[in-house]
Amino acid sequence: MDTIISIELGTNAVRVYAFDLKGQVLAFAKGAYPTFHPFPDYSEQDPEQIFITMLFVLKNLLSEKIHPQKYKVVSICFSASMHSLLAVDKHGVPLGPVMTWADSRSKVEARELRNSSISEKIYQVTGTPIHPMSPLVKILWLKTHDKETYRNTVKFMSLKSYIIQQLTGACKIDLSLASATGLLDIHKKVWDTTMLAYAGIQVDQLPDPVAISDTCGKLQHQYRVSLGISADTKILIGSSDGCFATLGAGVWEEDMATVTIEDSAAVRVVGTKVLMDKNQRLFNYVLDDKHYISGGPSNSGGVIFEWFAKQFGDFKEAYDLEACIEDLMTEAAGVEAGSERLLFLPYLLGERAPIWNANARGVFFGININHERKHFARAAIEGILYEMYSIEKMLQNHRNIKRISVNGSFASIPFVTQLIADIFNLPVSASPNASSVSLGAFLLCAAEIGIYKDITEAAKTIKLGEAFKPNKYQNATYQKYYAVFESLSGKLGSDFEALALL
Amino acid sequence: MKQFVLQQGSSPELQLFPDIIEIGSKKNISIQLDSMPVLSYDFLRVYCVLEGKFEWRMQGQQFVVYPGDIVLVLPNQVFGGAKGFLEIGNIAWLYLNVTRPENGNLYWGAWSSLNESERQTIGNIMLLNHTVVRSRVGEAIRIFLALQNELFNHEIGFHTRVHQLMDELLVLVTRQLTKQSSSGRDFPKVFLQLEQRLRENLFHQWSVEEMAATMGMGTTQFNERVKTFTGFTPINYLINIRISESIKLLRKQELTLTDIALDTGFYSSQHFSTTFKKLTGYTPSEFRKKGNAES
Fold first, then answer.
1. Does A222 sit within 8 Å of B282, measured CB to CB?
2. Does A73 share its domain with A151?
3. B290 burial via Cβ count (<10 Å: 0-12, 13-18, 19+)
4. Which of A200, A354, B36, B139 is close enough to B81 for a disulfide, judged by CB 3.0 to 4.6 Å?
C-alpha cells in the first residue's frame, strides 16, 4: 500500500499527515516550536529547532504508524507559512533566527515604501501589498539596521527553502512562496530585477524559483536510513499554507471563496487572472502555471478570541483554554445578534487587509451599564467576522461570490460557521478535512503521480459538507451593525497613528 | 508577634539548632541610619514582612514589599534597605546555614526531612528565580509565629517541630516562587518562559519535576499539558532543544564534541553521539564533516 506524506511547517507547529491514495488520513502527528519576541515587533524562530522538530515528528510518525503497516512512502510534500526570511552565510549557516510573517520591525521601511512613487509599480509587478511582513521590506530593514548580517548574507532564504536544503541539498523556493516575497514578478514568474535592485541584492542571493510540483532531489543518504525511506520517494517542494488551504478547500469555481480562520485569517479565491486592487489591498500568489490565489489576510483570527478568553474567561482547570472558550461561546450564543449595540474592532495585533495599518488597535465601542461578559464575548466574535466580511466585500468587487467554504479551527466551530453565513448572507460549507492545507498537498501529489489529470480535476473531487444557510433577519441586523463597524474602522485611522506616536 | 532575636553562639535556645544562624522579629518605631546596610553573606536569608511597607534593594534592583511578602536572599546575594536603613514597621527573619559548593547547587543540613531529590529541586528553583516572593497570604507569618513559640516554649516534640517548620517555610517559598509567574490561563506564554529558561541553562540536567515546578505545576498535569501543546513529552521536547543547539555549535569548528555535549546538557560525548545519531542518522562528527564538505 502506498502513502503520501504532507509536512506543514506552520507558525506554531509542524504538522505531519499521512494519506492513503484516496485522500483518507492514515496518521497524524504534530510538534510545536516557539516564537521568540526579544523586542517589541520582533517575531523570530530558531531554524534548527524547527528542522529537528520536523525530523523528530516525521521519524516517530513513520516508525510508529507507517512502517509497521508496511506502507510505502510515494511522496513527501512540504508547505509553509508565507513571508519568512532567513539570512544564510557562505557556509550555508544561518546568520540569526528566522523572521516570521508576524515580524513587524520594518514598519517604518514599509510605510516609506508604500508612500513612495514606486509603490504602485511594486504592487503591480509583485502582487503583494507593501507591508512589514514582506521579505522585500525585511531585507530593506536589514540593509539599514543590521548592516553586518546584510553584508554577510550569501542567500536570503525562506524557512522552507532552508529545511529542504538540509534534507536534500537543493536550494529552491516554490513560486507560491516566492510570490509572497515582494521580489517576484508574478506575471513572468521570475525574480524581478528592479525589486532586487531596490533591495540591493543579486539574483544569486535568492533560491531558484520553481513550480510547486518540483522535486528537490533525493533525501540525503543518512536521512533516508534514519527515516526508513527509499531513494525513489519523491520530495515535492509544495506550496505555501495559504495556497494549499485554498486548493484543499475545493474552492475551484468562480463564484466561491474560502474563509480560513486559524490564529490569523484570510479570505481567498482562485482564478486565472491577477486581481489588481486600486488601493493595493489584495494579494495575488502564484499557485501553478495557470492559477493565482487572490485575497486578503487578516491578523485578527482565533488568536484574538483566545486573548479574550485568557483575560476574561473562567478557568475551572488551570490552562484548560478549550473548555474556557467553549463556555464563552455558549454564553455568547445566548446574546442577540449585534450584542445589544456593542461593537468590537479586533485590531489587537495591528491589521493587514483591508485597512493595512500596523498601528491599528483593538476597540470595544458602545459599552453600556447593562452589558455583561457574554455581550463582550459575542461582540468579540462578531468583530472578528465583520473583519472577514470586509475582506469578502473587497473581493466582491472582482467576483460574484455566491458560496463560501470555511476551514481552520476557529471558523469551523459550528456557532462561528453559522455566524459567517448570517453576516455574509451566503451559504457556508465546512471543509471535510481537519487540515485543508495538507489536503491541498495530497491533491498536488495525487495529480503528480497520475491519480488525477491535473490539480483542477483533483480540486473538484473535494466534497464539502452540507451548507449552513443564512438567516435573512439576522443578516438585516448585521448589515446595520457592519455599517457602524466600517465607519469606526475608517474614522479611527488617524487616532491609531496618534496613539502610536505617544 | 513579640520582638526577639536569637543568635547562634550567644542564645542557648539555638544550641539544639546549629544550622539556624539567626532568627528574630523586630517592631521598628524609629529610623536609624545604617540599620540595614546593603550587604552579602554566605548564608540563606528569609525575611517576612509583618506590618508596614519597605523599600529594599537586592542585586542592584529596588522593590517594595508589603505584609505577608517573603524575600529570599541567597548566599552571596547583595541585599539591604534601599536607603541603607530599616523603615518603620514590623518584620521577622531567619538566617539559615546552607552551603553552595563548586558545582553550584544549594545544600542544607541533615535536619531537613525533605528527600534528596526534593532538596535538589528546591535548591535549583531557588537559584533560578532571582525574584522577590510576593505571597500576601499570611502563610509565612503563621510559620514564623509557630517557630517563635516552639523555640521559646519547649513543648514536647519542639525539636522536630522547628525542623518541620523550617522545611515548611522552604517549601512555601519555593511553591510561591514558581506560582507567581503564572495565572493558570496562558499556557503558551508560561511555556515560552520555561523554554527560555531551559535554553539559558541548557547544560543543567533538568528533571521533569524541576521543569514542572518552574511552571508552578505538578508533574502529572505538566506532562499532559506539554504533550497536548507540543506533541512531545517534556524530556523529548528538551532533547529537541539540546540537539538543535548542538547543531549550531557543531558548525563552529572551534569546539570539541565533548565541550558541545556538555554545553548542551548531555551526560557525555557518548550520550550526545547516540542521541544525535538516533534522531538525525548522522553521528555528530559525520554531521560536522558534511557541513564542511558543503561549504
1. yes
2. yes
3. middle
4. B36
B292 pLDDT higher than 80:
no
Q: What is the pTM of this model?
A: 0.88
Alpha-carbon distance values, A37 to A106, A131, A140, A350, B120 (Å): 14, 19, 20, 16, 32
Mutate which: B200, B243, B283, B286, vs A, most A CBs within 10 A: B243
Domains of chain A: total: 2
Whether B20 and B6 have beta carbons less than 8 Å apart is answered as yes
* Residue A1 near chain B (CB below 8 Å): no
Q: Show the low-confidence residues of chain A (pLDDT under 50).
A: none
Across the interface, do B279 and A226 touch by the CB < 8 Å criterion? yes
CA distance B127 to chain A (A): 23
Answer whether A34 touches B (CB < 8 Å): yes
Residue A90 falls inside a structural domain: yes
Q: Which three cell numbers stand for residue A220?
A: 540525503
Shared-domain flag, residues A312 and A237: no
Question: How close is the nearest chain A Cα to the Cα of B228, in Å?
Answer: 9
B117-150: per-residue pLDDT in tens?
Answer: 888 888 888 887 666 677 666 788 899 999 999 9
Where would I find the beta strands (DSSP E) of chain B? 4-7, 20-28, 44-52, 54-58, 61-65, 70-73, 79-81, 89-96, 98-99, 107-108
CB B227 within 8 A of CB A28: no
- Please list the residues that pair with A87 across neighbouring strands: A156
Complete domains list, chain B, with CATH: 4-179 (2.60.120.280), 185-295 (1.10.10.60)
For position A142, what pLDDT does the model report?
97
Please check whether residue A187 lies inside any domain of the structure: yes
Indicate which of B194, B200, B232 best probes the interface with A, i.e. most A CBs within 10 Å of its own CB: B232
Strand, coil or helix: what is B132? Answer: coil
Q: Which chain B residues are Cβ-neighbours of A321 within 8 angstroms?
A: 185, 187
C-alpha–C-alpha distance, residues A386 and A393, integer Å: 10
What single DSSP character describes residue B76?
Answer: T
Mean pLDDT of B180-208: 87
Which CATH number goes with the domain that contains A170? 3.30.420.40
* CA distance, residue A420 to nearest chain B CA (Å): 28
Q: How far is B251 from chain A (nearest CA, A)?
A: 8
Domain boundary residue, one of A221, A242, A263: A242
Helix and strand counts by DSSP (H, E) for chain B = 10, 10
- Going by C-alpha positions, the residue among A416, A398, A399 that lies closest to residue A407 is A416
Flag whether A281 is in a domain. Answer: no
Domain interval for residue A384 = 303-392+491-501
Q: Is B285 on the interface with A (CB under 8 A)?
A: no
User: B208 — contact with chain A (CB < 8 Å)?
Assistant: no
What is the distance of C-alpha A142 from the center of its chain? 24
Residue with cell 506560582: B179
ipTM: 0.89
Which grid cell sits at A32?
Answer: 510545536
In a domain, A345, yes or no: yes
Yes or no, beta carbons of B230 and A32 under 8 Å apart: yes
Distance from CA of B295 to the nearest CA of A (A): 5
Residues of chain A with C-beta less than 8 angstroms from the C-beta of B251: 91, 93
